[in-house]
């Protein structure tokens, strides 16, 4: 999905509501079909090089009490979103959950935020729009950018231009909820480096890695928010910059890489909009644990189960990942990014990253 072909969210939401009324008028039981959001319904799109939902669908139907309540909640939510868009206002996903408590029918109110979040995702899928188009936002993720990039952003006080090294403090430029409001003006970057942890991000900035290697450092802040993945994709696609993802060496961090490169199960309907399939993994490999004799922790039972699950995950069914995961299961160890400090605080910026980037042809 690109900003050019995104449908008008008001028209799409209205069309969905009208569909329910038409079903009533025709004597049909109201229903809404959405893709089944499970790993078994994920497939690789050879043309777009991302993971998307397959053909399996789930039907929300008023034939059952629970199904009728889901459609009722959808109708109330559509009405709220249309009003919000019309008034040019926005709200958070958390606020939507609490807001439903003011709706006049108890059956329309959400029982948990997971329920309201899931409904927003359903509406994205069936409308072809995004929650950002609905003026819905998550709580601030706090993810940032530091690097040789000048951009223009829209603020409540008008436009402003920012250089993501010269005009920001050590914390960097905070990524807005909707990165499509940003215009990239110019840059002197050679590549994008996405970093999982705040500690490693701070080490790179303190050591001047972004300046010495002309890198745009994107702090993922753990599992990256949609805004972080979107701006990463834009940096790669629009500025034609190689993109690498630097994480810890454990199964949960591999999934962080997977969400950046291939998309996540929750947002597979937006993979083309959010995922950067050309992104390469430069994180701590089991191979590094062995070669550098890094400090480690033993794998927990949940780690082992996650690794075995990843062997069955289509996003990780490559020779590289199968080799690394099998090695990790064999050595039964995991390691963090900051374990590289066992070789000195400058090792990561002077040796590890330059050598890996050189091997990958980025430097």
Automatic annotation (TrEMBL):
GO CC entries: chromosome
Entry annotation: catalytic residues: 98
Binding site for Mg(2+): 196, 248
Protein name per Swiss-Prot or TrEMBL: Type 2 DNA topoisomerase 6 subunit A
Assembly, per entry: Homodimer. Heterotetramer of two Top6A and two Top6B chains.
An annotated GO BP: DNA replication
Gene that produces this protein: top6A
Entry GO MF terms: ATP binding; DNA binding; DNA topoisomerase type II (double strand cut, ATP-hydrolyzing) activity; magnesium ion binding
UniProt keywords, alphabetically: ATP-binding, DNA-binding, Isomerase, Magnesium, Metal-binding, Nucleotide-binding, Topoisomerase
Function statement: Relaxes both positive and negative superturns and exhibits a strong decatenase activity.
Domain Type II DNA topoisomerase VI subunit A all-beta: 139-188
Upper taxonomic lineage: Archaea, Methanobacteriati, Methanobacteriota, Stenosarchaea group, Halobacteria
Cofactor section: Mg(2+)
UniProt-listed Enzyme Commission number(s): 5.6.2.2
EC primary class: isomerase
Record's keyword annotation contains Transcription: no
Family annotation (NCBIfam families): PRK04342.1-1
Native source species: Halovenus carboxidivorans
Record-stated family: Belongs to the TOP6A family.
